[in-house]
Amino acid sequence: MNEETMENSETATASSQTENVSAPAKSTEVKARGRRSEKIGIVASDKMQKTVVVRVDRLVKHPRYKRYVRKRSKFMAHNEIEGVTIGDQVRIVETRPLSSRKRWRVVEVLRKASK
Prior knowledge:
By secondary structure, the protein is an alpha+beta fold.
């Protein structure tokens, strides 16, 4: 083999070794968490301790009749905020499972219910 071929093979070997060295460093970095899903709804029940039921309304276009139909979903959300009562409009975000049905957390109260 001539000298150029030897240098190219050595360079290729050195570059593959540096790639292997940098691979573990990437795995130790903290991965960025994706955007958490947020929903805005109205508190339907506050009878539990540190838990509220939030009703989220949405409009869905009917596939056949092309009219908008109102759909409702109820989410159980963890609530650390004092003074959240029925009728308040709140923002909830997705979180890790806190119990068998709680996967949401109340972040803020957007509008208090009128008394």
